[in-house]
Amino acid sequence: MKKVLLLSLAALLFLPSCTKTQTQPEPSPDPVREGWTYAPPETGMYGGRARLIAGDQLTVEDGYLYFDGGVGDGYVVPMRMNLETGNVTALCTDPVCAHNTVECPLYGMRHFIPVRIGEKTQILALRFYPYPEQTLSGEEWTTVWDLVRYDPMSGEKTVLETYEGHMGFTPEVYLGTYRFYISQVYDEEDNWIGGLTRMDITTGKTELLFEGFYMPLLEKDGRVWVSDGVGIFSFEAQSPSPFLREEFSSPSAMLPDQTMCSTDGTNLYVTQNQSDTVRVFPLDGGEERVISVSFADSYARIIPAGGWLYYFSGENTVLGDARIRGYASDKVELHGEEFRRCRPNPSAPDGTEDELVFRFEGEWASFRPSHTVSDGRYLYCFYSWWEDPDGDGVYRDGDNRYSFPVNGHDNCSLLRIDCETGEAEIITIREGTK
Ligand SMILES: [Zn+2]
Questions:
Q1: Other beta carbons less than 10 A from residue 126's beta carbon
Q2: 3-state class (DSSP) for residue 24
């Protein structure tokens, strides 16, 4: 069985690539999307922050926004938008491919993330899909379940890791050719026995660096920062035998699975679920401090960009009545309507330096972002919204719409908010019907 799987995988891998490893023609310049405006950020996002392969639905890398442009059938169709031109292209370089059969080199993806390796942007993708095979005893189903690296320029694809179960993924840090992550290793009794692992993304070769749970937080100046839930440590990323140096230890235990971390390269920001505080850890070794931020319900997340901390705020909004099968409430309730920003080091005389960027009101009243990413100037969002065709304030089955492929929804569009001017617009990738 295993041999059959390996052979068929090999066949899958070599077929598409043999036509694509020849010299690529110079790519022609992207056409500019009609009516597109773009202002480059003064400071881009910090590249050393931790990422989630299974979770970061939108990623900005290398001047592009990467996202799933699929049609909601469960598989991801990786696409990217040139931030400067607004031009959108699929990552599968085959112009005639419909990306919905095993012949597509990116078929079976569930999650993906772009990673910068040297001069090249590579794609790390999790694939999980079954497919039938003819054997002597009839048709047999095989499951591909792996992590692959895909080069969008050459179409070359490399399997880095294969899985038999337990596909849990925590934040990861990428530096040079390395991926730092918590390995998914279990003993016979199904207990997790993994540790912090370093993988060479070019070869897939791995080595266990530290036993136990050390969640990667960020990379700075060649050191990877991790947390074991109580303290924050760092180690030299390239060292053949790195050791942990304590950076912060905290009396109030910092539990990685209950926190959200982000960084701008100067500080590490840790928000705790349902608490209106941000813990600020200066990476240069200064004292930990706490700032107060009034988060929207269930959206305690900080996006550091251009010297500001962006966040969602405000009381929950009741949009109207819900008459929807299986809906948890008889009211349609949305999280806070304010998108705000504050300074990590307030310099205003009264200590507050906090302002509204955008309010979800008027034509935007029913819109709420569900996934966000910033390039330092704009906030790009996947979102959901509600429609009320007869205007009676009652929302029924099908009135809740999603801008991204989920649960059979076939729409694909992005919301872009200019963080300096507060202007918002919808970027339609594909018109949907449901
Ligand atoms: Zn394709």
A1: 21
A2: coil
CA of 57 to the centre of ligand 1 (A): 19
DSSP 3-state of 256: helix
| pLDDT per residue as tens digits for the range 77-113 | 999 999 999 999 999 878 888 888 888 888 899 999 9
Q: How many domains does the chain have?
A: 1
pLDDT of residue 173: 95
Q: Rounded to an integer, what is the distance from CA 388 to the centroid of its chain?
A: 31
- Which H helix or E strand runs over 259? strand 259-263
Q: What is the mean pLDDT of residues 235-262?
A: 83
Q: Residue 311 C-alpha to ligand 1 middle, in angstroms?
A: 36
DSSP letter at 58 equals S
What CA–CA distance (Å, rounded) separates 290 from 243? 29
Instruction: Output the CA 132–ligand 1 centroid distance in Å.
Output: 19
CA of 124 to the centre of ligand 1 (A): 16
* 8 Å CB contact between 214 and 201: no
Q: Which domain holds residue 424?
A: 258-434
CB 119 within 8 A of CB 148: no
In a domain, 316, yes or no: yes
CA distance 60 to 50: 13
Max Cα-Cα span within the chain: 80
108 CA distance to ligand 1 middle (Å)? 11
Task: Specify if 402 maps to a domain.
Answer: yes
State the distance from the centre of ligand 1 to the C-alpha of 251, rounded, in angstroms: 51
Closest CA to 255 of 270, 269, 265, 268: 270
Mean pLDDT value of segment 125-138: 88
> How remote is the CA of residue 82 from the centroid of ligand 1, in Å?
19
Here the tokens at position 2 are 């295993």
* Phi, psi values for residue 64, rounded to 5°: -125, 155
Q: Comparing 272 with 284, which gets the higher pLDDT?
A: 284
Whole-angstrom distance, CA of residue 310 vs CA of residue 314: 13
What is the value of pTM for the model shown?
0.89
Is 263 a member of any domain? yes
The letter for the amino acid at 429 is: I
CA of 67 to the centre of ligand 1 (A): 15
DSSP per-residue letters across 278-293: EEEEETTS---EEEE-
90 CA → ligand 1 middle, Å: 8
Distance between Cα 99 and ligand 1 center (Å): 4
Gap from CA of 102 to ligand 1 centroid (Å) = 9
**Looking at the domain assignment, is residue 431 inside a domain?**
yes
